[in-house]
Write a structure and sequence with these properties.
Structural class: mainly beta
Amino acid sequence: MYLHGIILSWLGDPPTSLDRRSFHVNKLRSSFSDPPQCQDLATSAVTSRIALDMECPSALDRTPPDRCRSKFSGFARPSKPRSAARQVSQPGPEPKGFAMAHRPRQVSSQLKGATIGFVAALALLAVSPSPGLTILQPNAEIRQTVPEFPSGDGGSVAKPAYRVGPQWHVLDWAPGPIAAVTQAAGYDTVVDGRTEKKIFVSTGSNPDVGTADSVNNVSVSVDSGKSFLTTKPDRPEMALNFGRLQDGILIAIDFIPEWADDSHTAVNIITRHSHDGGESWQIRKGLFRPPAGEEFGGMNRGLRVHRRPIVLLDGTIMVPAYTSYKSDKGRGASVILESKDGGESWIQRSRIPASLTTNEVGWSYGTDGRLVAALRTGEVPPRLVTSYSDDDGRTWSPATPLRGPDGNQIVGIDPDIVLQPNGIMVLATGRPDDRILIDYDGTGQTWDAEEVVFANAPSTTNNGRYDGSSANNSLVNVGANRTIFFGDKCHVWGCGAYDNQFGVFAKYLSIVTPGVGKLDLATQVRSGVGGVSGDFAKPDKRFPETRPEGAFDGSSAPHSAAVLSARDGVAPTMVVKLDQPYPVSRIGLMLGTGQPLDATVSLSADGHTWSDPVVTARGTHDHALRYTDFSAIDAQYIKITASAGTATPVTELEVYTADVQTFENEPVFGVPRGFTDAKHAWTTDVSETPGTTALGGFRSRTALRLWDKWEDDNATATKMSADTAHQTVSFDWGVTDHRGPFVVEVKGHSGGSTTTPWRFRIVDTKPAQTIEVHDGTKWTALGTLTKRVELFQWATVTIDATTTEAAITVNGQRLTTTKRAEAAASLAGIAFSTGDPIAYGPTFYIDNLRVAGA
């Protein structure tokens, strides 16, 4: 028997009501006249995704190409049938369709030739299978990992929110080389006009025993953790006890000290200093003796330093450690060490009182000015306890159980704590798994949320439950509302299940405060649509991050600030000009990093006439932003006035508008707050990147992204609002792929039910887009734009509607209609979608959304 067939000989689009793959299967099966064997080949060719119906996306060359379709023909003379039984693959999840996305055009011809040969080969094999060959049957499916896309409701705009993800690799080695016990730290620099954090991630490659010396791998990022291009083995420094002195010198304190004498009465704490950003290190050994009346107990080399030094304004270095004194009779203790001479000598500043053994410490200042410490206990399994200090670590409250949102004491090890610049506290711990706890008020007294960040255990029995990660994790702030979680994939004693393949990952934690109208001051100033001026201190070469833009760079580090200073008793000021007037209703302000400072904030529409202060700070000791809400004032200028005769660091400034959803204060890769019924729509802050469909925001970092790569569904997002008879909606609209129409709907209510009275559609036509309106039955043209909205450009869209008439304006061109899709007694919001009918491929962006009732 000869097999003749024309594969993909049709050019027409499948009906939109059918799944494209099913359509192709049916079409191709009907092309063959010798069922069922030939039809099985057709199904196999389609379901195994052999370059069917290839598509050339527009993102690469930013032109809107037509879909590329290719005809393939196959002719094969099969060999004689063999008697071996055909083996059928096991069923798996159904593929979502196939598209050659993000490939250059010239690849199409290469794929075409290769595919012709491949299809012919499959035809031959399909009728003459060999032993051991897996052939797909009509009901066989291909396993495919489908990412979990954000969907559903985004929560209340009046409440904080968080999201975990995405995840990327810091290092990912082949089986064998050890990299575990992740520690991370960083400091601020300036790269291309932006404040970036240089981050060091150290991992151990030594056995996890008390007698082993630390052997470190150090990976370095110069772009706030987005990429780690270098990893050096056998490094002396580690990121566990990393800090920066008041003169800009970096320090890294060794985890394990050395005995200072043969009788083991003292240790040398080893502090490494770097004057060149961590490229090289000089050793400084500082003697530490236990307090009077105490002697070291049985711990090898006396103590362990753990973690995160804090440098006070007077230069004092404080760092936690754990040890065991003879008087403790085998019980371990957590203490605070201090050095007033840069590590030349050390004393014990305090001991954290606890009724049981404690060791590892994570700590941070809270929003109330107190130090918060989380300690690991010596229990089995280990648990966490917490203690507080009101006097910079000189004295501590007795340790008490650290309880999660459910009221139970947290089980875990190696706690790490950071206070985000926005005042939200995050704690990392693990074992089992890697987890975070979130305290929205930043005091560390109650923990509002707990989330698993990484789970990798190979089994649920005995110690296998703990083998999926060492649970030695670290947190690094990289924005006002963003922290990176660093962790590893297994420990030296628990990596056998993964063939001893070690690796280190990073994950974003986006944790935001209430309020959705945050303005992106940094981007406005950097792009030139906004500005900043004032009385500033002279630049300091040691701290390039100290500059006017430091006031809104998202960092609360001590020198990432605009320092206000003036002579002759004049009160220094700083004025920020916004890109346009806004009804400003909220200010976030952080002065310095713990020292008492004064300042006021006033607003102006014209830069000349100023309001009474809307914020007054008197003697505040800030460790994070403090937020002040007030009745909205129309303003384009923000002025901060500091006290005369005092250098005042404005560490962070945030400005919020009352009537715009800017998406700047939303968890990234999550459904924005205030939105409902979202599918394939999320907040993104990936800036415009050549060769991709990323666009970022309009004059900002962040926008709502509608991303559609489905042929049986759309990307949608709805924002409902209060009922009104007259509603005005405006937003900035960006497009990076317009293979389908952009649909915007005005929502309303009638008789207690939600209706859609107005439906508009922007269709990509030549020479410019066509605006269409739906009358409840069909789409009809309303008009054509006089100027085309090009790819990777933004357009301003406004919809002014009542229950009987509506007007849509695109870049100033207004089109009016009375054709309603449905009746409505009131108007109540807006909805966005990527297509009607369902279309494949479009990507749209929404930014600066205003919904207002008359």
